[in-house]
């Protein structure tokens, strides 16, 4: 039964309201698909990647931190986060507080693109969610889950929205200056890398024995998550022109070319210096390539994507394998998943390389205006040297702004949370892991799936350690 039966409207009028003249159905469909692909990077992509990449005792906690963040961000996003990030300007770095829940607002045309606000709200949500989940990667293996529950809405509200409005909102101060951040090299990756590193400093390190030895519990599972992350990047970068356009297609191809080049570069360096091809290293190279191309995906040519892949597979490798081991500060901060190197360093690198390689014609396809979007190399070539230097200056200014905001706000958020609940788990609970945090384990390998931890104060078997007692209690005695 059609809606017109209930409203009393003619069916053709109801249809026109559902498909207004300004809406492009193909663009709307692509945008919803792209948003879903980005969502799959988090749920289940990063859930699986984190769950497989940590010690067995942390698999549930690590995956659950990601799942919680995804849900919490969505509720905060529609209640206040979206309008703070993309609403009417309050100040040059922040929008006006409002909700994104009303039908009257959601069915209107979005600030950009030929689709409704409802589509834009969902698309921008999955970017906000993955940013928080990436931050979680730096904190795995010791953060108090209750503290994480507070961290997510506070950081989203007072850090992410500042940066998103400044760079992506049409009225943001860096956006009006002409910064190029095609799909989140600054807003998402640089922010998450810096915020994760800063939060890791305040939370403190894992137990010494966990820092010294922290083997993945399931590398194949980790690879499955990494694969979802890679393929999901099709929507991550392909969705940002806000249309099913030629620029979207170019962005997708450049994304995968850069990721593959970066992976191979990292792999060759691992084999050259350590003698073995590391699966974990290959995944890190893949991620740095995806991150580096993100601010540039649709505004650089294919040869530039390859050059960026060579840089993203080598420079973060050098900072992680050489600089990190020689730096007292980097050694002091326990960044579990090396988010600082794979996202902050790679994000900075991508932003700077964008300032070098941005093609004015491709920038026109993306922005719809030439303005002064000119990569430095093209500035030299076309006699627009001043514009090229200006672009590099804006890209560097953006880096300084994002780093400053995230160090300051993340520190304040952590200090406020510390007044309410401890930021980290107790040493006793960290010895145990998942069962202490959630009363659950990732892998039940005893008997018929029952847990058996004789030394765990959380075990349901503590009172039945004697096999004879188990039989009297009606339990089965398994022969191991």
Automatic annotation (TrEMBL):
Keyword set for this entry? Ammonia transport, Membrane, Transmembrane, Transmembrane helix, Transport
> Where would you say this protein principally sits, based on its record?
membrane
The reply to whether ATP-binding figures as a keyword in the UniProt entry is no
Q: Where in the cell is it found?
A: Cell membrane
Taxonomy, superkingdom: Eukaryota
Give the protein family. Answer: Belongs to the ammonia transporter channel (TC 1.A.11.2) family.
Q: What is the protein named?
A: Ammonium transporter
């Amino acid at each position: 039964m059609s809606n017109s039966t209930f409203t009393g409207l003619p069916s053709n009028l109801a249809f026109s309201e559902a498909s207004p003249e300004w809406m492009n159905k193909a663009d709307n469909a692509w945008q919803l698909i792209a948003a879903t692909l980005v969502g799959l990077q988090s749920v289940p992509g990063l859930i699986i990647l984190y769950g497989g990449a940590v010690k067995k005792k942390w698999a549930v906690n690590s995956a659950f931190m990601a799942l919680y963040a995804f849900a919490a961000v969505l509720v905060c996003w529609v209640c206040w986060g979206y309008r703070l990030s993309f609403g009417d300007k309050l100040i040059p770095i922040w929008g006006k507080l409002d909700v994104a829940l009303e039908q009257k607002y959601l069915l209107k045309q979005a600030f950009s693109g030929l689709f409704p606000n409802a589509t834009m709200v969902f698309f921008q949500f999955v970017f906000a969610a993955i940013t928080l989940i990436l931050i979680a990667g730096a904190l795995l293996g010791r953060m108090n889950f209750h503290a994480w529950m507070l961290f997510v809405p506070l950081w989203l509200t007072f850090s992410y929205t500042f940066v998103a409005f400044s760079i992506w909102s049409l009225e943001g101060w860096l956006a009006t200056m002409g910064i190029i951040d095609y799909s989140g090299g600054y807003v998402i990756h640089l922010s998450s890398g810096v915020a994760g590193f800063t939060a890791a400093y305040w939370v403190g390190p894992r137990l010494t024995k966990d820092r010294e030895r922290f083997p993945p519990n399931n590398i194949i599972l980790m690879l499955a998550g990494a694969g979802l992350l890679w393929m999901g990047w099709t929507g991550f970068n392909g969705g940002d022109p806000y249309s099913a356009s030629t620029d979207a297609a170019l962005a997708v191809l450049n994304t995968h070319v850069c990721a593959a080049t970066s992976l191979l570069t990292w792999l060759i360096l691992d084999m050259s210096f350590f003698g073995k091809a590391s699966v974990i290293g290959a995944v890190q190279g893949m991620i740095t390539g995806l991150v580096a191309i993100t601010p540039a995906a649709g505004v650089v040519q294919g040869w530039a994507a390859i050059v960026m892949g060579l840089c993203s597979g080598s420079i973060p490798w050098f900072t992680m394998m050489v600089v990190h081991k020689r730096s007292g500060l980097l050694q002091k901060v326990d960044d579990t998943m090396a988010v600082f190197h794979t996202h902050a360093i790679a994000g900075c690198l991508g932003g700077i390389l964008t300032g070098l390689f941005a093609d004015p014609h491709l920038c026109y396809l993306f922005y719809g205006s030439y303005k002064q979007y000119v990569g430095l190399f093209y500035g030299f070539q076309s006699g627009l040297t001043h514009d090229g230097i200006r672009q590099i200056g804006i890209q560097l200014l953006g880096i300084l702004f994002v780093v400053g905001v995230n160090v300051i706000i993340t520190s304040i958020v952590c200090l406020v949370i510390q007044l309410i609940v401890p930021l980290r788990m107790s040493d006793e609970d960290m010895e145990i892991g998942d069962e202490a945090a959630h009363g659950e384990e990732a892998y039940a390998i005893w008997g018929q799936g029952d847990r058996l931890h004789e030394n765990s104060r959380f075990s349901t078997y503590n009172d039945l350690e004697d096999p004879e007692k188990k039989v009297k209690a009606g339990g089965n005695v398994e022969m191991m």
